[in-house]
Description:
Layout: H1 3-9, E1 30-35, H2 40-44, E2 48-54, E3 56-65, E4 69-70, H3 82-100, E5 105-107, E6 111-114, E7 120-121, E8 124-133, H4 136-156, E9 160-169, E10 172-173, H5 176-190, E11 195-198, H6 204-207, E12 213-218, H7 234-253
Parallel strand pairs: 1-12, 2-11
Antiparallel strand pairs: 2-10, 2-12, 3-8, 3-9, 4-7, 5-8, 6-8
Helix pairs in contact: 3-4, 5-7
Amino acid sequence: MSVAQALVNAGLDPARIAHAARHPRDIAAYLELHIEQGPCLEQAGLALGVVEAINGARRLNCRFTGEAGHAGTVPMLHRKDALAAAAEWMMQVENLTRQRGGNLVATVGTLRCAPGAVNVIPGEVQLTLDIRGPQDAPLTALLEELLGQAQAIAGRRQLSFAAEEYYRIAATACDSHLQAVLSEAVVAVQGRSLTLPSGAGHDAIAIAERWPSAMLFVRCLGGVSHHPAESVTAADVGLAIDAFSRAVEKVADA
């Protein structure tokens, strides 16, 4: 079912959707309170942190293509093993991303090997790459380097490599004034503040296109989210409500 049909079924008119738009002057600012979904606050021994930016992201479908062969009869020096090439590249993804720093992260999340038999040299490997960072330029530079390394590995091993980007979203910087307001409130309730990027996407990405936006993170146990083990303490939530309320009041009084 399309979104338009779902709107009709709910008694709405898709042709009038633009009439639901809020005028920019109707909203002064957007503040969002969320669990961190990561381990940084816990490792720093802090309940709260202020988000400086929401990571941009790129997602790609990648493929190494070599030549399948008999696992017992093809000598090692004559192989065009797609899985060996993919494994070498995956180590490059990890190492180069760590070397770049800057809160960049990269993940190979899926891997499919063909033909997928215990006694056959892999002829093709399909894998995904998810790469994220709080600034677009370093993110683009890392992606270009990783793709260049993949091509170099494939060329040296006499294979081919292809990649197709299927998802892209720009990094979203949080409003500097709202960051300062939140930081002041956090210092008031816990003594000091920490700024950090958000590795996950949030509603603030869309809202920041029209209004000043910022986010406050609260510590979560082990950085676990979207899982039954997700947990926050009542004490941390109390500090979060206190700091968030202070920030809202200051923005409202401005």
